[in-house]
Amino acid sequence: MRLSFHMFAVIAAAGIEFDGEVETDTESEEDEVKDKKTNKQHLRETGRASRLQSKKKEKDKEEKEDKEEDESKEENNGSQQNRASRRTNYQRKNRDGKKAREEGSRQKDRGKTAPNKDQKESENKEKKTTKRGKEGENKQKKGRKNSTSSASSNSSDEESLSEEELAMLKEQVEQKKKLISTMRNKPWRMIKKLSVLREAQDFVEKFEGALGKGKGKKLYAYKMMMAKKWVKFKRDFENFKTQCIPWEMKIKEVESHFGSSVASYFIFLRWMYGVNLVLFGLIFGLVIIPEILMGMPYGSLPRKTVPRAEQATAMDFSVLWDFEGYIKYSALFYGYYNNQRTIGWLKYRLPMAYFMVGISVFGYSLMVVIRSMARNANESTADGDDDNFIFSWKMFTSWDYLIGNPETADNKFASITTSFKESIVDEQESNKDENIHLRRFLRVLANVLIICCLCGSGYLIYFVVKRSQTFSKMQNVGWYERNEVEIVMSLLGMFCPPLFETIAALENYHPRIGLKWQLGRIFALFLGNLYTFLLALMDDVNEKLAEEDVVKNITHWTLLGHHNSSAGNDSTVTPPPLDPADVPRGPCWETTVGIEFVRLTVSDILVTYITILVGDFIRACFVRFVNYCWCWDLEAGFPSYAEFDISGNVLGLVFNQGMIWMGSFYAPGLVGINVLRLLTSMYFQCWAVMSSNVPHARVFKASKSNNFYMGLLLLILFLSLLPVAYTIMSLPPSFDCGPFSGKKKMYDVIQETIELDFPLFVAKIFSYMANPGLIIPAILLMVLTIYYLNAVSKAYQRANAELKKKMQMQREEEKNKRNNKSSTNPMMQDLEDLLTPSTKTESPSKQAEDKKIDSPNVTSPSRKPGRGEVLAGGPMAGGRGAAFTPPSPVFVTQPRTLGVWAPYPGQPRPWGHPLRPVPGRGRGQPCYPRAAR
Amino acid sequence: MGGSASLIPRDLLSEYQELTFLSKQEILLAYKRFSELLPKEERENACSARVPKSQILTLPELRANPFQHQICHVFSTSETGDDSMSFEDFLDMLSVFSDSATSDIKSHYAFRIFDFDNDGILDRKDLEQLVNCLTGQGEESQLSSAEMEQLIQNVRPAGQGMGTSPGTGLSAHLPPQILEESDIDKDGTINLSEFQHVVSRSPDFASSFKIVL
């Protein structure tokens, strides 16, 4: 082995023409000896016998000899040994300065032999080149003996490199570089790779230097240097980037214990965290921080002050916990912001910024979700639905090499075994559906039950929200009454999924289908709850809007009265302004909505954490420690340990995010809370999973469901965009709170900015653009584009499917050809039955054709000789092709009569395809055994 | 980290980066883990030392793997055949199993791992052994010989599909079995190119053929 490595290294060093071989060589080491031979041949054939080449050869020999001496490997062929021994003495004397001198002398040689070269080149014979090589060697020796100054003349010789040599050198250098960059793709041993790499690097270094010398080549050298630096920089940057990915080790740890499906949840969580960080940066950087730094301070305006009646309890924890008191009148909520057009010395347009950030939160989220979906889709184009290799895939790719935990491995073994057995007995399963009526009844029953559950939960939430509105009007309500909505929603979210699972047991679906149903149901539950909540909230908002009108008048009159009274008392002194805490104010529905969402989020966080703590951790502790003194085996029996519920967790995360999206417009601080939540739940859940969960009994892979999560997220994003857009577009903002107060609609802020801050023509352009006459055609255009793109993608899909079919047919054909067996494709056989008779008579009447189809035996005797020929002869037996008239015209002229071909539309001549080498074979042959039977 | 970094020469480290799919940190981590497998006195020159197979198999990443022996065997360069691994072998292994390795090289090594008798083809014996590996050591989880037979070759279960002649629609519903599926040239074995052809189509081969330290 060592020897072969060594030899290969030598060959690689010898390199010029060998490079191609070296690169394309993906065989293992055993082939290297062969390589050498082929290389030699190659050399002989391509022997351009240029100066350079001869020079190279000399170098090869010398290097070979060097190595042979160095490692005393004498096993090489005899001639080399001889030569080696001839030169040994000399080389041993002065090995040190040898290389430099060699080069110099060689180049000298080159100069001397240059005139002869062209003639010799034309002959292209090995002998001559070797001879010349020997001559060169002799001359070298002489040269070396004669002049030690040859090294000094090196540089001048260097410049005499002609253009083509340069080009060639460059080419080689490029090849070497390519080799270096693709080396890692080769299935070689490290030692071999190392040696090849070193040789290649030496070569590149040396000749890059050579190329760099002389005039006009500095640029090249510079470019090379920069390229090298760039590669290094890129590598360092990659290293840095991988170092920057957070929680990589944590996720890996989870992955090795629980397989890739559980890890996919954490990767999703990490991705969500990244998205939320960006949203957080947007909102904090552009809205909250400018407001805190440059806006009016707390207490300067009624909207920024706690009302007098609440001031006594505003700092109590119980009040703060409900996000009332000081928290309600802080920059975390919509109501705190002032409607001043510009704030601070920067003239920062806060209302405008607020509006734009609100929009860009959605814009950014949409963009990110869709982009990552598209990327996932691109990655998974590797024919996931190709059902050709189900068994092979099960066998070759079912093991998850990341599993490092024996328990998980046991589960994986079990699941693989089941999947094998399942697919083996699939056929029997499908046959034994004996009690189909009972099963159908049970499934219907289960669905009815679940729909009842869903409706009940929806009504419950609606009822509770309604009740909470009456509570909110009453004074002195307890903690439970105030938090009823959140508690009920969380409890529903906690108990409904297990209930669904229990009900789903009735249905007796295959687990994979069952999981999908389960996911769909939980999704419907969450969605229903969310929207009921929203509807109830809308009622609330409408009530508040009605209330607002009343308050508006009161406020107006209060302010007016205060002014009048102070004016009436003494007109000389300016009246002390009314304390902002005393001004009566409206209900500010925006802040109410924001508070509802924040509360919901917080209670959701708490419930999640408590569930994990109680349901997983305490249970695990109980099972673990009480097991020593219990009547039955707790670990294997009833409570056992909890499994990590991937689908539930993913859905929880997705809905949580939907809430954030909905609430972030009215509560800018919500994103900050969510960032904290994701951060803590990363650590907390990682810990919980590692400490108290057991791997799934059925370990399934995650790769396919990645886009599924994203799809859910996109759906939720869209659904949460709707109510926000509705409120922004159609509800009037409160008159005394928030950045848009005083305007009729929130989006008026854009119009205002355009009118006041932009030149006139921009306003005009905008007014034109807002014209329905322009918008409707634009929408039409977009719809048409979508339609067109859709049609194109459908066409591509069809083309794709067709190509796949073609490939399959080709493969079948190949198979048939190889194993001389009857066609495995039943469709083809059916077709043969139809085609064989019809080809005989080109255009008979239909009845005649049918008759012949019915009696294939008639045709078979005449073909018998043909079959014998095939069995005896090679696959390209000419007799067969001749005996069989090309059927393509038949097919073209009568495509409708052959129902079998319906699945291949738009494929004009499938039989006459040039890629099928023997058109008649696969189709014609198999019908004979049947006909003969 | 810094201590172990100094033990690999800088240029060697950059060469390793060039030759593997690993980043610098991963190589250093691999070095650390590798030297931990060595006895104390050999840690100084971990680059040249060899770790016996029994030590390699104590790695948690390989402990649960049913192909652990085969993996050691494939990546070892030991002349004596004891499947011991040098640091470079270890790096080779990690590179192949790393995230960024191409599926080409992954499938190449997967083939060699599945090729239990080292004859360059996957024949029935290999496949049987593979199934046994995948179904675990436990007696109850192993497939019966009839099931195995059916899985590997296209043998219809008795009583099933006998009444129907081949070539009619029903045979299309029977699951095609492994040799039937992937043995393109019908020589009864699967060679490397057939294997790569099959595996490269798989949506999740590259994501599961992965070991991360």
TrEMBL record, chain A:
Residue intervals passing through the bilayer: 271-293, 352-370, 444-465, 485-506, 518-538, 665-687, 708-729, 765-789
Domain TMC: 588-703
Any Gene Ontology CC annotation: plasma membrane
Region (Disordered): 13-164, 807-890, 903-933
Compartment annotation: Membrane
Chain intervals with Basic and acidic residues compositional bias: 33-48, 55-64, 93-140, 807-817
Keywords from the UniProt entry: Membrane, Transmembrane, Transmembrane helix
GO biological process, one term: vestibular reflex
Annotated Pfam families: TMC
Biased composition (Acidic residues): 18-32
Membrane topology: Multi-pass membrane protein
Keyword Membrane annotated: yes
Compositional bias ranges of the Polar residues kind: 836-846
GO molecular function: mechanosensitive monoatomic ion channel activity; voltage-gated calcium channel activity
Family to which the UniProt record says this protein belongs: Belongs to the TMC family.
PANTHER family on file: TRANSMEMBRANE CHANNEL-LIKE PROTEIN 2, TRANSMEMBRANE CHANNEL-RELATED
This protein's name: Transmembrane channel-like protein
Species for this entry: Chloebia gouldiae
Lineage: Eukaryota, Metazoa, Chordata, Craniata, Vertebrata
From TrEMBL, chain B:
Highest taxon above the source species: Eukaryota
Pfam families per UniProt: EF-hand_5, EF-hand_7
SUPFAM superfamilies referenced in this protein's UniProt entry, alphabetically: EF-hand
Listed InterPro entries: CIBP, EF-hand-dom_pair, EF_Hand_1_Ca_BS, EF_hand_dom
CDD domains: EFh (cd00051)
Residue ranges constituting the EF-hand domain according to the UniProt record: 102-137, 177-205
Residues that span the membrane, as ranges: none
Keywords: Calcium, Magnesium, Metal-binding, Repeat
GO molecular function ontology, one term from the record: calcium ion binding
Name of this chain's protein: EF-hand domain-containing protein
Organism: Chloebia gouldiae
